[in-house]
Amino acid sequence: MATAQTVQQTKRALISVSDKAGVVDFARELVRAGWEVLSTGGTLSALTAAGVQATSVADVTGFPEIMDGRVKTLHPSIHGGILARRDEANAGAHLVELAQQGIGTIDLVCVNLYPFRETVQSGADHSTVIENIDIGGPAMIRAAAKNHLGVLILVDPTDYSLALQESVTAEDRQRLAAKAFAHTAAYDAAITAYLSVPAELPAQTTLELTRLAGVDLRYGENPHQEGTVYRVGNQTGPVLDAKVLTGKPMSFNNYGDTDAAWALVQEFPQEVAACVCVKHANPCGVALGSSAKEAWERARDADTLSVFGGIVALNRPVDLDTAQAMRGTFLEVLIAPEVSPEALAWFQAKKPDLRVLVAGPARFSGTEYRPLQGGLLAQARDLRTWDDLCPEVVTKRQPSESEWSDLTFAWRVTKHARSNNVVLAKEGRTVGLGAGAVSRIWAAERAVQNAGGSADGSVMASEAFFPYDDVVRLCAGVGVVAVLQPGGAKRDPEVIAAADELGLSMVFTGSRHFRH
Asked: pLDDT tens, 214-252?
């Protein structure tokens, strides 16, 4: 009768990896330490080609790989060897069962999965992507992680050296098991994202979050808060994947503010130079110009006080003239599509702490998330552009051509300012901004105060309708000539009547743009 003692005494490792970094040396060290190595497919070929003694899994199962390799490790001789309990209370019965079936234990599983994400990213056709959904790999990983007290599970090449130590602690085994389950969970999340219908808000979803390599935030919004940066799935972002050319490491707040600045500067047509200055996630100066240098100077001069310590985004390459024009203004971050070598050298010499970024590629989903305590809000991104609107003039006076130009400019800004907000603009530049107010009239008062004498001849835009005519009367009193708003309030007739009385043009967009 078979007993537990009749099970093989040699430790066995099963190695089957897509990422073969370091695996040959690792397997060679295992063999040198007296382990028997089992392997499959490409990993087996790599090991034997390097002179490492390894046994084919097919020789263990007595069954060949079938269905183009779809089935090779899904067998009791593999999963029995992994899942047999080794703890004192239950090991006896399980090991006896293995002996009765002629199955040996597997004491180490080294597996990482088919390159599903990379296949998707390469633009491969659907059938190729589906074939890169690993089945046997996750099954072995999960089995070994479940039985981690008796089986060492490795999914990360950086952990290979740990397995070669004479003893591995229970705490190490549990940490490796947690990493293994995270590995398969992230893999399943990537598959879910690929198969899901775009822009769908499903009843259940899984987000794959991977900590950004090489990014070390000192802290979160405040020094007493920890902080880091995660990538969602295979998505990329202009700030997330920006190339940092020079300057101090990015902070938690730098990431958020720079992302806001880049999103707004991308609203403007590429044929015109645009510059956006942001402070605490709100635009504080936005301007167009004939060059990057002129756009910067006009945006800076829109609010020289608030731009101090701000974030600057340009939609044009930064040359030496533009860089030198930033002399005398303290800035935290500059992001642009390109920075000339001469400009970079000047920044490194004159502004060594300024973080200078070249924007990375943007490839992200149509759904955005915001945190709640214990949950997330999800919504479709606000991707509506000016060309998507059907603006309607609702007053007797029509906007002039230059006023139309400024109204469209102000609308792009108001879409990206925090609610409640009011934007005053003139000649392709913001002259007054009131954002993040709890009352629309207070937002208007702040914009008027910010503008001073520059309000005369400006246009005004609001991201939401006016419940009363007070904002129109206030702005008309300082020289505003045209107003743009979504419309839709109960008192729209009173607001329109006030605009007609005061000689203003008013345009309804029919589209609200709250940003909280």
From this structure: 888 989 999 999 999 999 988 999 999 999 999 999 999
Q: Helices 41-49 and 23-32: crossing angle, nearest 10°?
A: 70
Dihedral, 408, 412, 417, 423 alpha carbons, nearest 10: -20
The yes-or-no answer on residue 79 being catalytic is: no
Nearest by Cα to 281 from 315, 255, 303: 255
Q: Residues 218, 258: contact at Cβ < 8 Å?
A: no
253-259, Cβ contacts within 8 angstroms, sequence gap of 24 or more: 253/221, 254/311, 254/332, 254/333, 254/355, 255/229, 256/281, 257/281, 257/310, 257/311, 257/332, 257/333, 258/311, 258/313, 258/333, 258/335, 258/357
Say how far apart CA 231 and CA 401 lie, in whole Å.
44
Of 4-13, 202-211, 350-359, 363-372, give the lowest mean pLDDT range: 4-13
Return the structure tokens found at 94: 């399980």
- Burial class, 30, CB count within 10 angstroms (exposed 0-12 / middle 13-18 / buried 19+): buried
Kind plus residue range of the DSSP H or E element containing 400:
none
- CA 489 to chain CA centroid, Å, is 37
Q: Minimal CA–CA distance to 27: which of 43, 42, 41?
A: 43
pLDDT of residue 90: 66
What distance in Å separates the CA atoms of residue 293 and residue 275, rounded to the nearest whole number?
9
Token digits of residue 143: 């089995």
* Start-to-end CA span in the chain (Å): 73
Q: Report the sign of the C-alpha dihedral through residues 107, 70, 119, 367, in that order.
A: negative
Q: What is the dihedral of CA 467, 470, 473, 476, to 10 degrees?
A: -70
Strands of 36-39's sheet, edge to edge?
A: 55-56, 36-39, 12-16, 108-111, 152-154
Find where tokens 């829109």 sit.
302
CA dist., res. 62 & res. 58, Å (int): 6
> For the residues 295-314, what does the mean pLDDT come to?
96
Query: Active-site residue 280, yes or no?
Result: yes
Q: List alpha helices for 147-196, DSSP H.
A: 160-163, 170-195
Q: Which of 11, 20, 179, 280 is catalytic?
A: 280
Among 11, 146, 179, 248, which one carries the catalytic annotation?
146
Question: For the segment 258-273, what is each residue's pLDDT rounded down to a tens digit?
Answer: 999 999 999 999 899 9
Q: Mean pLDDT lowest for which of 18-32, 68-82, 411-425? A: 68-82
- List, in sequence order, every residue forming a beta bridge with 230; answer none if it has no partner: 211
- Taking the C-alpha atoms of residue 487 and residue 495, their distance in angstroms, rounded to an integer, is 10
Instruction: Mention every residue, 6+ apart, whose C-beta is less than 8 A from residue 289.
Output: 272, 273, 274, 275, 295, 296, 297, 298, 428
Q: Residue 71 has what DSSP assignment?
A: B
